[in-house]
Design a protein that fits this description.
Shape: globular
Bound molecules: zinc ion
Largest sheet: 6 strands, mixed
CATH class: Alpha Beta
Radius of gyration: 19 Å
CATH topology: TIM Barrel
Order of helices and strands: HHHEHEHHHEHEHEHEHEEEEEHEHH
CATH superfamily: Metal-dependent hydrolases
CATH architecture: Alpha-Beta Barrel
Helix content: 40-55%
Distance between the termini: 15 Å
Structural class: alpha/beta
Number of domains: 1
Number of helices: 14
Protein backbone atom coordinates (compact mmCIF):
# COMPACT_ATOMS: atom_id res chain seq x y z
CA UNK A 1 0.00 0.00 0.00
CA UNK A 2 1.29 3.46 -0.83
CA UNK A 3 1.98 5.72 2.08
CA UNK A 4 -0.70 8.24 1.25
CA UNK A 5 -3.34 5.50 0.86
CA UNK A 6 -2.30 4.19 4.24
CA UNK A 7 -2.56 7.66 5.75
CA UNK A 8 -5.97 8.15 4.22
CA UNK A 9 -7.21 4.89 5.67
CA UNK A 10 -5.85 5.84 9.07
CA UNK A 11 -7.47 9.25 8.81
CA UNK A 12 -10.80 7.68 7.93
CA UNK A 13 -10.39 5.48 10.96
CA UNK A 14 -9.67 8.59 13.03
CA UNK A 15 -6.17 7.37 13.85
CA UNK A 16 -4.08 10.21 12.42
CA UNK A 17 -4.77 13.69 11.16
CA UNK A 18 -3.79 14.68 7.64
CA UNK A 19 -1.75 17.73 6.77
CA UNK A 20 -3.51 19.97 4.24
CA UNK A 21 -1.24 18.82 1.42
CA UNK A 22 -2.18 15.20 1.99
CA UNK A 23 -5.86 15.87 2.35
CA UNK A 24 -5.94 17.93 -0.86
CA UNK A 25 -4.15 15.19 -2.76
CA UNK A 26 -6.51 12.55 -1.52
CA UNK A 27 -9.88 14.21 -1.51
CA UNK A 28 -9.71 16.37 -4.62
CA UNK A 29 -9.77 14.11 -7.70
CA UNK A 30 -8.90 16.98 -10.02
CA UNK A 31 -5.80 17.73 -8.01
CA UNK A 32 -4.82 14.11 -7.89
CA UNK A 33 -5.13 13.85 -11.65
CA UNK A 34 -2.94 16.92 -12.22
CA UNK A 35 -0.23 15.36 -10.07
CA UNK A 36 -0.31 12.12 -12.04
CA UNK A 37 0.01 13.98 -15.35
CA UNK A 38 3.07 15.87 -14.06
CA UNK A 39 4.56 12.65 -12.73
CA UNK A 40 4.18 11.12 -16.19
CA UNK A 41 6.12 13.91 -17.90
CA UNK A 42 8.92 13.78 -15.32
CA UNK A 43 9.19 10.01 -15.76
CA UNK A 44 9.25 10.34 -19.54
CA UNK A 45 12.24 12.71 -19.32
CA UNK A 46 14.00 10.37 -16.88
CA UNK A 47 13.33 7.47 -19.24
CA UNK A 48 15.32 9.33 -21.91
CA UNK A 49 18.17 9.53 -19.44
CA UNK A 50 17.88 13.27 -19.03
CA UNK A 51 17.60 15.26 -15.81
CA UNK A 52 14.16 16.89 -15.60
CA UNK A 53 13.93 20.36 -14.10
CA UNK A 54 10.89 21.62 -12.30
CA UNK A 55 11.27 25.38 -12.63
CA UNK A 56 10.06 26.62 -9.26
CA UNK A 57 10.18 30.36 -9.84
CA UNK A 58 8.78 32.09 -12.92
CA UNK A 59 6.41 34.96 -13.57
CA UNK A 60 3.68 34.69 -16.18
CA UNK A 61 2.19 37.80 -17.74
CA UNK A 62 -0.89 37.15 -19.89
CA UNK A 63 -0.46 38.68 -23.32
CA UNK A 64 3.31 39.06 -22.88
CA UNK A 65 4.52 35.55 -22.17
CA UNK A 66 4.81 33.69 -25.46
CA UNK A 67 3.35 30.37 -24.34
CA UNK A 68 4.09 28.50 -27.58
CA UNK A 69 7.70 29.59 -27.45
CA UNK A 70 7.98 28.50 -23.81
CA UNK A 71 6.49 25.07 -24.60
CA UNK A 72 9.17 24.65 -27.26
CA UNK A 73 11.92 25.64 -24.84
CA UNK A 74 10.56 23.24 -22.22
CA UNK A 75 10.66 20.31 -24.60
CA UNK A 76 14.12 21.21 -25.90
CA UNK A 77 15.60 21.80 -22.45
CA UNK A 78 13.91 18.96 -20.53
CA UNK A 79 11.96 21.31 -18.32
CA UNK A 80 9.26 19.09 -16.85
CA UNK A 81 7.09 21.86 -15.47
CA UNK A 82 7.11 25.54 -14.70
CA UNK A 83 5.38 26.90 -11.60
CA UNK A 84 4.10 29.97 -13.41
CA UNK A 85 2.89 32.65 -10.99
CA UNK A 86 0.72 35.15 -12.84
CA UNK A 87 1.39 38.84 -12.23
CA UNK A 88 -1.21 41.60 -12.76
CA UNK A 89 -4.04 39.13 -12.17
CA UNK A 90 -5.45 39.29 -8.66
CA UNK A 91 -7.65 36.22 -9.16
CA UNK A 92 -4.72 34.16 -10.55
CA UNK A 93 -7.27 32.61 -12.91
CA UNK A 94 -4.76 32.72 -15.76
CA UNK A 95 -2.63 30.15 -13.92
CA UNK A 96 -5.52 27.68 -14.04
CA UNK A 97 -6.23 28.45 -17.70
CA UNK A 98 -2.59 27.77 -18.55
CA UNK A 99 -2.69 24.45 -16.76
CA UNK A 100 -5.96 23.45 -18.43
CA UNK A 101 -4.58 24.24 -21.88
CA UNK A 102 -1.27 22.45 -21.26
CA UNK A 103 -1.82 20.08 -18.33
CA UNK A 104 1.61 18.44 -18.44
CA UNK A 105 3.59 21.67 -18.44
CA UNK A 106 2.30 24.15 -15.91
CA UNK A 107 1.68 24.14 -12.16
CA UNK A 108 -1.05 26.45 -10.88
CA UNK A 109 0.63 29.03 -8.70
CA UNK A 110 -1.02 31.93 -6.92
CA UNK A 111 -0.42 35.52 -7.82
CA UNK A 112 3.11 36.82 -8.12
CA UNK A 113 3.72 39.67 -5.66
CA UNK A 114 5.94 41.52 -8.13
CA UNK A 115 3.52 44.30 -8.96
CA UNK A 116 1.75 47.03 -7.04
CA UNK A 117 -1.27 44.77 -6.40
CA UNK A 118 0.94 43.31 -3.67
CA UNK A 119 2.83 46.20 -2.14
CA UNK A 120 0.03 48.82 -2.38
CA UNK A 121 -2.57 46.65 -0.66
CA UNK A 122 -1.17 43.43 0.81
CA UNK A 123 -4.37 42.69 2.76
CA UNK A 124 -6.48 42.66 -0.41
CA UNK A 125 -3.84 40.61 -2.19
CA UNK A 126 -3.67 38.01 0.58
CA UNK A 127 -7.47 37.78 0.77
CA UNK A 128 -7.41 36.79 -2.91
CA UNK A 129 -4.63 34.25 -2.29
CA UNK A 130 -6.65 32.73 0.54
CA UNK A 131 -9.56 32.14 -1.83
CA UNK A 132 -7.22 30.56 -4.36
CA UNK A 133 -5.79 28.20 -1.74
CA UNK A 134 -9.24 27.33 -0.45
CA UNK A 135 -10.16 26.13 -3.93
CA UNK A 136 -7.54 23.38 -3.56
CA UNK A 137 -6.34 24.02 -7.11
CA UNK A 138 -3.04 25.80 -6.42
CA UNK A 139 0.23 24.11 -5.53
CA UNK A 140 2.60 27.00 -4.89
CA UNK A 141 2.34 30.63 -3.90
CA UNK A 142 4.19 33.11 -6.10
CA UNK A 143 7.09 35.40 -5.26
CA UNK A 144 6.45 38.13 -2.70
CA UNK A 145 8.74 41.13 -2.52
CA UNK A 146 9.54 42.43 0.94
CA UNK A 147 12.84 44.07 0.06
CA UNK A 148 13.56 44.40 -3.62
CA UNK A 149 16.08 46.44 -5.53
CA UNK A 150 15.22 47.18 -9.15
CA UNK A 151 16.23 44.32 -11.45
CA UNK A 152 18.87 45.02 -14.12
CA UNK A 153 16.24 45.59 -16.82
CA UNK A 154 14.29 47.89 -14.50
CA UNK A 155 17.46 49.88 -13.80
CA UNK A 156 18.05 50.25 -17.54
CA UNK A 157 14.47 51.45 -17.96
CA UNK A 158 14.86 53.95 -15.08
CA UNK A 159 12.12 52.22 -13.09
CA UNK A 160 13.09 53.32 -9.60
CA UNK A 161 9.55 52.60 -8.32
CA UNK A 162 10.60 48.95 -8.16
CA UNK A 163 12.65 49.74 -5.07
CA UNK A 164 10.26 47.99 -2.68
CA UNK A 165 10.08 47.72 1.10
CA UNK A 166 7.28 45.85 2.87
CA UNK A 167 7.82 45.13 6.58
CA UNK A 168 8.15 41.36 6.85
CA UNK A 169 7.16 41.38 10.53
CA UNK A 170 4.07 43.54 9.85
CA UNK A 171 0.57 42.42 8.84
CA UNK A 172 1.63 41.53 5.27
CA UNK A 173 4.37 39.20 6.45
CA UNK A 174 2.28 37.70 9.21
CA UNK A 175 -0.62 37.09 6.83
CA UNK A 176 1.59 35.38 4.27
CA UNK A 177 3.46 33.12 6.73
CA UNK A 178 0.12 32.21 8.31
CA UNK A 179 -1.38 31.20 4.97
CA UNK A 180 1.56 28.91 4.35
CA UNK A 181 1.16 27.25 7.74
CA UNK A 182 -2.58 26.90 7.39
CA UNK A 183 -2.63 25.40 3.90
CA UNK A 184 0.76 23.70 3.85
CA UNK A 185 1.66 25.51 0.61
CA UNK A 186 5.11 27.00 0.00
CA UNK A 187 5.60 30.65 -0.92
CA UNK A 188 8.51 32.41 -2.59
CA UNK A 189 10.21 35.28 -0.82
CA UNK A 190 12.21 38.06 -2.46
CA UNK A 191 14.32 39.59 0.29
CA UNK A 192 17.61 41.31 -0.47
CA UNK A 193 20.60 40.16 1.51
CA UNK A 194 21.50 42.85 4.03
CA UNK A 195 22.73 42.56 7.62
CA UNK A 196 20.03 44.84 8.97
CA UNK A 197 17.23 42.73 7.42
CA UNK A 198 18.29 39.32 8.71
CA UNK A 199 16.95 39.54 12.31
CA UNK A 200 13.41 40.29 11.10
CA UNK A 201 13.43 37.25 8.81
CA UNK A 202 14.75 35.04 11.59
CA UNK A 203 11.97 36.31 13.87
CA UNK A 204 9.35 35.30 11.32
CA UNK A 205 10.91 31.88 10.75
CA UNK A 206 10.93 31.36 14.53
CA UNK A 207 7.33 32.49 14.94
CA UNK A 208 5.98 30.42 12.02
CA UNK A 209 7.92 27.15 12.18
CA UNK A 210 5.54 25.31 9.87
CA UNK A 211 5.63 27.91 7.09
CA UNK A 212 7.25 26.63 3.89
CA UNK A 213 9.46 29.43 2.69
CA UNK A 214 11.51 29.52 -0.51
CA UNK A 215 13.99 32.38 -0.22
CA UNK A 216 14.71 33.20 -3.86
CA UNK A 217 18.11 33.99 -5.43
CA UNK A 218 20.62 32.21 -3.19
CA UNK A 219 23.64 34.40 -2.46
CA UNK A 220 22.64 37.21 -4.84
CA UNK A 221 24.16 40.19 -3.05
CA UNK A 222 23.69 43.51 -4.80
CA UNK A 223 25.39 45.80 -2.27
CA UNK A 224 28.26 43.86 -0.63
CA UNK A 225 28.97 46.69 1.81
CA UNK A 226 25.52 46.07 3.33
CA UNK A 227 26.16 42.37 3.91
CA UNK A 228 28.86 41.01 6.19
CA UNK A 229 27.11 38.06 7.86
CA UNK A 230 25.61 36.14 4.96
CA UNK A 231 27.60 33.30 3.45
CA UNK A 232 27.69 29.50 3.34
CA UNK A 233 28.07 29.17 7.12
CA UNK A 234 25.15 31.48 7.81
CA UNK A 235 22.89 29.70 5.29
CA UNK A 236 23.86 26.37 6.82
CA UNK A 237 22.94 27.67 10.28
CA UNK A 238 19.55 28.87 8.99
CA UNK A 239 18.88 25.47 7.43
CA UNK A 240 19.77 23.71 10.65
CA UNK A 241 17.53 25.98 12.72
CA UNK A 242 14.51 26.34 10.42
CA UNK A 243 13.10 23.14 8.89
CA UNK A 244 10.67 24.91 6.56
CA UNK A 245 13.29 27.12 4.90
CA UNK A 246 14.38 26.49 1.30
CA UNK A 247 16.37 28.49 -1.25
CA UNK A 248 16.12 28.75 -5.00
CA UNK A 249 18.98 28.97 -7.44
CA UNK A 250 17.67 31.71 -9.71
CA UNK A 251 20.91 33.67 -9.77
CA UNK A 252 22.73 35.74 -12.38
CA UNK A 253 25.72 34.19 -14.16
CA UNK A 254 29.22 34.48 -12.62
CA UNK A 255 30.29 37.58 -14.54
CA UNK A 256 27.10 39.55 -13.83
CA UNK A 257 27.64 43.04 -12.45
CA UNK A 258 24.75 44.88 -10.80
CA UNK A 259 24.82 48.32 -12.40
CA UNK A 260 23.82 50.58 -9.49
CA UNK A 261 26.49 49.18 -7.15
CA UNK A 262 29.06 47.93 -9.62
CA UNK A 263 29.23 44.66 -7.62
CA UNK A 264 29.47 41.13 -8.92
CA UNK A 265 26.15 40.07 -7.45
CA UNK A 266 26.29 36.31 -7.95
CA UNK A 267 28.44 35.37 -4.98
CA UNK A 268 27.86 31.64 -5.40
CA UNK A 269 30.68 31.66 -7.91
CA UNK A 270 34.40 32.36 -8.01
CA UNK A 271 36.54 32.20 -11.14
CA UNK A 272 33.47 31.24 -13.15
CA UNK A 273 32.74 28.16 -11.03
CA UNK A 274 30.53 27.20 -8.11
CA UNK A 275 32.56 27.97 -4.99
CA UNK A 276 33.65 24.93 -2.99
CA UNK A 277 32.17 26.26 0.25
CA UNK A 278 28.77 26.77 -1.38
CA UNK A 279 28.96 23.40 -3.06
CA UNK A 280 29.56 21.82 0.36
CA UNK A 281 26.34 23.37 1.69
CA UNK A 282 24.34 22.15 -1.30
CA UNK A 283 25.76 18.65 -0.83
CA UNK A 284 25.17 18.68 2.93
CA UNK A 285 21.52 19.77 2.59
CA UNK A 286 20.38 18.88 -0.92
CA UNK A 287 16.76 18.76 0.22
CA UNK A 288 16.68 22.55 0.77
CA UNK A 289 17.53 23.97 -2.65
CA UNK A 290 15.45 24.27 -5.79
CA UNK A 291 16.23 24.83 -9.44
CA UNK A 292 14.55 27.97 -10.79
CA UNK A 293 14.86 30.37 -13.69
CA UNK A 294 13.27 33.63 -12.49
CA UNK A 295 11.70 33.81 -15.95
CA UNK A 296 9.76 36.99 -16.74
CA UNK A 297 8.73 38.21 -20.19
CA UNK A 298 11.53 40.78 -20.76
CA UNK A 299 14.16 38.02 -20.52
CA UNK A 300 12.20 35.32 -22.35
CA UNK A 301 14.77 34.93 -25.12
CA UNK A 302 17.47 34.20 -22.54
CA UNK A 303 15.61 31.22 -21.05
CA UNK A 304 17.79 28.55 -22.73
CA UNK A 305 20.94 30.33 -21.58
CA UNK A 306 19.65 30.68 -18.01
CA UNK A 307 18.75 26.99 -17.83
CA UNK A 308 22.08 26.10 -19.43
CA UNK A 309 23.98 28.01 -16.74
CA UNK A 310 22.02 26.32 -14.00
CA UNK A 311 22.76 22.88 -15.38
CA UNK A 312 26.43 23.41 -16.22
CA UNK A 313 27.51 25.53 -13.27
CA UNK A 314 25.43 23.98 -10.51
CA UNK A 315 23.54 20.74 -11.22
CA UNK A 316 26.25 19.04 -13.28
CA UNK A 317 28.91 19.51 -10.61
CA UNK A 318 26.84 17.95 -7.81
CA UNK A 319 26.46 14.32 -6.82
CA UNK A 320 23.74 12.30 -8.55
CA UNK A 321 21.50 12.33 -5.50
CA UNK A 322 21.80 16.07 -4.88
CA UNK A 323 21.26 16.86 -8.55
CA UNK A 324 17.96 14.97 -8.66
CA UNK A 325 16.78 16.44 -5.36
CA UNK A 326 17.47 19.98 -6.44
CA UNK A 327 16.33 19.71 -10.06
CA UNK A 328 12.79 18.43 -9.37
CA UNK A 329 12.32 16.26 -6.30
CA UNK A 330 12.27 19.04 -3.69
CA UNK A 331 9.74 21.05 -5.66
CA UNK A 332 7.71 17.85 -6.02
CA UNK A 333 7.73 17.30 -2.27
CA UNK A 334 6.73 20.89 -1.54
CA UNK A 335 3.88 20.92 -4.02
CA UNK A 336 2.41 17.46 -3.42
CA UNK A 337 3.32 16.80 0.20
CA UNK A 338 4.89 13.51 -0.91
CA UNK A 339 8.47 12.44 -1.35
CA UNK A 340 9.21 11.72 -5.03
CA UNK A 341 8.97 7.97 -5.47
CA UNK A 342 9.06 7.67 -9.24
ZN1 LIG B 1 13.00 37.84 -7.19
Amino acid sequence: MRRRDFLQLMALAGVVGLTPAFSFANTNPERHQMIEVWRGRIKAILARDRLPILDAQATYVAGKTNVERMLGYMDDLNIAQIAFAPAYDLTAGSALELQRSHPEYFIPTTNSGEWNGWWDDPARFLAAVRQQLQSGQYFFMGEHEFRHYPSPEQVRAGRSERDITVDITGPAGQGLFQLSEEFGVAFQLHYEIEDRLLPALETMLTNYPKAKVIWCHLAMIRYPERSSRYGPAYVRSLIERFPGLHFDLAVPPPASVYGPSGARDSTLYANGRLRDDWKAVLEAHPDRFLAASDYRPPIEGAYPKIIGHQRELILDVLSERSRHSIAYQNAWRLMTGEVWAG
